[in-house]
Design a protein that fits this description.
five-stranded parallel β-sheet, 7 helices, 13 strands, 26% strand
């Protein structure tokens, strides 16, 4: 008898930003799989068992969760933010594609959540108000030269860019290099928002210009949003500035 598997986005960390649908999916599970710090956000119910693993064990975690679901358990795999944005939903789908046939019979539900770029953007205004893209700066699963090529392409095309996984102890240089590439195509005054723990008590939001942006203020838990050439900063006396990207955009001459 096949069980159920829900892949759940817990939101960026504030309990208020976890959706009712996500709460219901977590409460209905008998077994919870995830990266330890994400599972720490959940108060286990008496009928639930926690299965924590390291952040780099996504495929093995997905396989273990699917195997348990085929035994008839009701399993939830949790991610921070949205499970479909650089997170566990893709890992579960990949495991199903390459795994045993019985995994395809599992009743699968992907439960969306508020992803980091949305939470950070909301704290400063509307920097994602026009066309934007999201990228991960981690080269664990793709080569760095591909990341550089994509940064050049999207900045030249005028997209606002949300960067996930911008820096880590093993990759301390990559955000700085990304800023160098973006400065080739964007004005020095382009706003850069660095947002960590948006909506939580330890929230840290900083706004700087691309010309002066300091990569060392970020860590692996920071989402960095780089505006386009059209993104505006509105000064407000006695209040934090507003950053927004106008919904209208200029024409590109050919």
């Amino acid at each position: 008898m096949s069980g159920r598997l829900a892949v759940v986005g817990l939101g960026p960390g504030s309990p208020e930003q976890m959706t009712p649908q996500a709460r219901h999916a977590v409460a209905a599970a008998t077994d919870l799989f995830g990266y330890g710090p994400y599972l720490d956000r959940i108060a286990l119910l008496p009928h639930q068992t926690r299965h924590a693993s390291d952040n780099r064990e996504e495929i093995s975690r997905a396989g273990a969760a699917l195997a348990m679901a085929t035994e008839g358990r009701h399993v939830a795999v949790v991610s921070g933010g949205d499970a479909g944005v650089f997170a566990m939903a893709a890992a579960v789908c990949e495991a199903i594609e390459h795994g045993p046939a019985e995994w395809r019979a599992v009743d699968l539900e992907v439960v969306p959540g508020v992803t980091a770029m949305l939470a950070v953007a909301a704290r400063v205004g509307a920097p994602l108000g026009h066309d934007f893209c999201a990228m991960s700066l981690s080269d664990n699963l793709k080569p760095w030269d591909l990341i550089e090529a994509r940064l050049r392409a999207v900045s030249a095309a005028g997209f606002v860019i949300a960067l996930y996984n911008p820096i880590s102890r093993a990759r301390p240089w990559q955000l700085g290099r990304a800023f160098e590439i973006l400065r080739e195509h964007l004005p020095a005054a382009t706003p850069v928002i660095s947002g960590r723990a948006a909506g939580r008590p330890d929230e840290r939001i900083a706004i700087a210009s691309l010309g002066e942006a300091d990569a060392t203020v970020a860590d692996m838990a920071t989402c960095v949003i780089i505006g386009s050439a059209e993104t505006r900063v509105v000064a407000r006396e006695g209040l934090a500035p507003l950053v927004y990207s106008p919904r209208s955009a200029g024409r590109i001459s050919t």
